[in-house]
Amino acid sequence: MGISDWPESERPREKLLKNGPQNLSDSELLAIFLRTGISGKSAVDLARELLQRFGGLTGMFAADQRAFCQVPGMGPAKYAQLQAVLELARRALEEKMKNGNILNSPESVREYLRLSLQGKQHEVFVGIFLDAQNRIIAAEELFKGTLTQASVYPREIVKRALHHNAAAMIFAHNHPSGLAEPSQADEVLTGSLKQSLALVDVKVLDHFVVGGDSAMSFAERGMI
User: Fold this and answer.
1) N or C terminus of the chain with fewer C-beta within 10 Å?
2) What backbone phi and psi angles, to 5 degrees, belong to 6?
3) pLDDT 10s digits, 117-146
4) Secondary structure (H, E, C), the chain
5) pLDDT for 4-25, tens place per residue?
């Protein structure tokens, strides 16, 4: 039975308009994006199948085009639409952060970094450059690959900070393993970056470790 045959109060689109998006399940929200199902499956059924196959929303957004398009009913057009939705969410959060003091919207920072780094199959090290009013000047991917103290060069980060005339920085990197916990190497690296940037009067406000759906903050744990 198609969704159009369901009672109106149970249809995802009608539920969203009446109760708000926060009251819908992941599969219901995804069904609205999919719009239609396939033979023998409603959009909600298809949404549940997608979430089950990829282990949830994070895995689905991180899936490459080939894996996504292997699901019956999915194709390049749907993959492109899904990636566009993800990028719009990132840009909306970045816009929100740029409109004021970044410290006044810590959750926006966390969500921006989580959306930017979750699901990546390799480690990425990101720097957010801030002015004296803690407003974003720029956000850059500084290094990628297996990150160690040797592969993240404090001197290069100092050069970028001076280039942007930054007064402060926030760092973030991901753990492809999905574990949002800092390693001993992460702690040593953060200390090294803090010392190097202090020489040019640039403060390190935070360092986030992103893993799966979580983003751990050094500052919140009193580690910076």
Assistant:
1) N
2) -75, 160
3) 887 878 899 999 999 999 899 999 999 876
4) CCHHHCCHHHCHHHHHHHHCHHHCCHHHHHHHHHCCCECCECHHHHHHHHHHHHCCHHHHHHCCHHHHHCCCCCCHHHHHHHHHHHHHHHHHHHHHHHCCCHHHCHHHHHHHHHHHHCCCCCCEEEEEEECCCCCEEEEEEEEECCCCCCCCCHHHHHHHHHHCCCCEEEEEEECCCCCCCCCHHHHHHHHHHHHHHHCCCCEEEEEEEEECCEEEECCCCCCC
5) 657 666 788 899 998 999 999 9
